[in-house]
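Design request, tokens follow.
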């Protein structure tokens, strides 16, 4: 497992943009951060945690929740052990706690929440109308 720390959340207005960051700290079990698939999930108030976006450990095309395509962008900087979530044109329904996650080493990306075994503490994003 890896230790993940999110940052960048806050209170914004509808239509604004926000970039979340997630940095892996400490020592990974084996290999380097670039060996691990990463993903973003979110949990709206009173709802279950849902998939947002993911990117393979080796790069390639990312995968997004259908409803978020075109507004959210996941990227990673392996040299900085950091994954980002750029969000544009935010809507009140985007209000949620956002979590980053990492999967087992060399696991292929997946939307399945249960496949990820390392989670950050979450960062709150609140979008006012």
């Amino acid at each position: 497992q890896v230790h993940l720390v999110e940052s960048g959340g806050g209170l914004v207005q509808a239509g604004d943009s926000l970039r979340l960051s997630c940095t892996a700290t400490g020592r990974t079990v084996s290999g380097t951060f670039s060996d691990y698939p990463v993903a973003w999930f979110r949990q709206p108030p009173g709802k279950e945690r849902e998939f947002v976006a993911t990117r393979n450990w080796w790069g390639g095309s990312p995968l997004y929740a259908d409803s978020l395509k075109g507004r959210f962008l996941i990227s990673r900087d392996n040299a900085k052990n950091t994954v980002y979530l750029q969000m544009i044109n935010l809507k009140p329904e985007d209000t949620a706690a956002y979590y980053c996650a990492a999967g087992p080493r060399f696991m292929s990306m997946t939307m399945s929440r249960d496949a990820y075994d390392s989670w950050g503490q979450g960062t709150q994003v609140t979008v006012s109308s």
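Comment from the thread starter after seeing the answer: thanks! The mean pLDDT is 92.
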